Amino acid sequence: MVERSDRAPLLDWEEAPSKEKQQLSPSRCSAPGGLTPSGSVCSSSAPPATLSAPPGKDEALRTDDGDHRWESAPGEAPLGDRRVKWEEKDQIVSVFVVAFNTRTGNMLEWCLPKDMDLEGVEFKAIASGSHRVTADFIYFRKGRYFGLACFANMPVENTAERGARMKSVGILSPSYTLLYRYMSFLEHQVRLQLQTPGHYSPLEAFYEDKRALLPSSGDGAVTACPANVWGAAINHSMHPEMKITHPAGCMSQFIRFFGEQIMVLWKLALLRRRILIFSPPPVGVVCYRVYCCCCLANVSIPGIGVAVPEFRPFFYVNVADISALENELSYVACTTEKIFEEKKDLYDVYVDNQNVKTCREGLKPLLRLSTADRDKYHKLTEQRQMLLYSQEENGDCVSSEEDLFILFFLEQNNRIFQTLGEVAASPDPMLTQDSVRAMGLDPHGDRLFLLHLLEIYGYDTLLVSEQLCCS
Questions:
Q1: Which of 205, 271, 319, 448 has the highest CB neighbour count under 10 A?
Q2: Distances (CA, A) of 435 to 127, 370, 441
Q3: CA–CA dist 191, 167 (Å, integer)
Q4: Phi and psi (nearest 5°) for 163?
């Protein structure tokens, strides 16, 4: 029997809505990971998209960028009903089984639809080095689609298979927002595929039931949620719908793993750098680190970052993705292949375990912590301790560490761009030591970071005080 992965069980809010739950309760958030109208945070850890850039064409869920008037039009169904009905339109465009063959290596064993272009998916669904683990899950990107595959390794008394049978069962979707729903199903199916190879009828039924509703134009785009429906369902100034299933404490584990280095990753994420994370298998937990890096760059001030490259996750990548990464201006990805370290033109920052490094001379000073960085990290750990104390003493089950960390960096980023906007609109648009401190930055230690920020986000009209430049 294949061991189950150590991923935490699905939480109640991670399951697909049942018929009994199709009415949105006013006491709960109207969207996973979103805010109530009052601004309080749900006790969830939904991976947010980076809000300072509009959602990409790969993502099916979108928010409204215009004037938000959330009242239902005459004759329309209530907002909650419309949103639930939209959510029930599944977005699965392919389901597949990948197997390891002792003679030919990874191979695509079965898929639906039969004419789907799945070239290379066999190397994404079974990560390099996976033979060392009994179970894993992998988020990845395939062209304009996102995928989730569950891998399992079962010992067998079979010389032809060299004592081990390894397979992955996976799905593709235009967005990774809904993939989390099917984690348990995929884990169960991969165990069935190991025990009874060739039994595909449950996967066929799944695909027929869940396949995406494609428009008649045939351009491959998947029907998206109407902007006015989704925008009305959440407080769109907060982290929205980007959500993957994760172990409880995913973000807090991420922070504890990197320690103070989290502040370095925060700056690099805000600067839209290409970040590649290396780790041996299992790769599932490393996919979570990709998501967490994206969380660090959230900005909720309208119009900020529209002209900068979109900061989006690639999740797991291998050598087959080299050509795709060559054309990316900004991304976060993870890999189990050490050869990527030598491909210095593909990334700006390489993260190996807790070691954050770069070969870009202009970025090397950013790897040093400033006084303000240490102060912010100290404040973050203090807030966490207060939250843990409140949970223990008062039974606070509403607030979560995930929300604490996400809000901490969101508010820090908003503070920076709010100050920049105020200075830019003033009669004397000059950044002084006082205005830099108002951003929560160190006028001396963060000078280079600030100069990069001004250039990338188009604040080139701002003047910088000589005291700030000549520190």
A1: 271
A2: 47, 17, 9
A3: 9
A4: 80, 0
> How confident is the model over 228-273, as pLDDT tens digits?
332 333 233 333 333 454 455 678 788 889 999 999 999 999 999 9
> For 90-113, what is each residue's pLDDT tens digit?
689 999 999 998 888 999 999 999
Per-residue pLDDT of 224-234, as tens digits, reads: 333 333 233 32
- Pull the structure tokens for residue 197: 């190879």
H/E stretch holding 185 reads helix 183-195
**Smallest Cα–Cα separation from 283: which of 355, 233, 334?**
334
Q: Averaged over 447-459, what is the pLDDT?
A: 92
Q: Which residue has the higher pLDDT, 167 or 237?
A: 167
Q: Collapsing DSSP states into helix, strand and coil, what is residue 92?
A: strand
Q: Using CA atoms, how far apart are residues 320 and 127, in angstroms rounded to an integer?
A: 12
Distance of alpha carbon 67 from alpha carbon 84, whole angstroms: 23
Among the listed residues 125, 90, 101, the one whose alpha carbon sits nearest the alpha carbon of residue 111: 125
Q: How many CB atoms are closer than 10 A to CB 129? A: 16
65-79 CB burial, b ≥16 within 10 A, e <16:
eeeeeeeeeeeeeeb
CB atoms within 10 A of CB 467: 11
Q: Tell me the Cα Rg of the chain.
A: 23
DSSP-derived pairing of the beta strands 312-316 and 331-335 = parallel
CA separation for the pair 27, 37 (Å, rounded):
11
For 436, the enclosing helix (H) or strand (E) is helix 433-438
Residues 6+ apart with CB under 8 A from 219: none
Tokens at 144, concatenated: 């304009």
Q: Which residue has the tokens 């986000």?
A: 457
Alpha-carbon span 229 to 81, nearest angstrom: 10
Task: Tell me the pLDDT band of 211, cut-offs 50, 70 and 90.
Answer: confident
Q: Identify any residues that bridge with 41 across adjacent strands, giving them in sequence order.
A: 35
User: What secondary structure does DSSP assign to 361-393, as a single string?
Assistant: TTTGGGGSPPHHHHHHHHHHHHHHHHHHHHHHH
As a whole number of angstroms, the distance between CA 382 and CA 388 comes to: 10
Please say if the pLDDT value at position 21 is more than 90.
no
Lowest mean pLDDT among 54-58, 286-290, 344-348: 54-58
Q: Which residues on neighbouring strands pair with residue 154, listed in sequence order?
A: 165
- Token pair for 431: 């950044």
Alpha helices in 211-304 (DSSP H): 227-233, 250-258, 261-270, 284-295
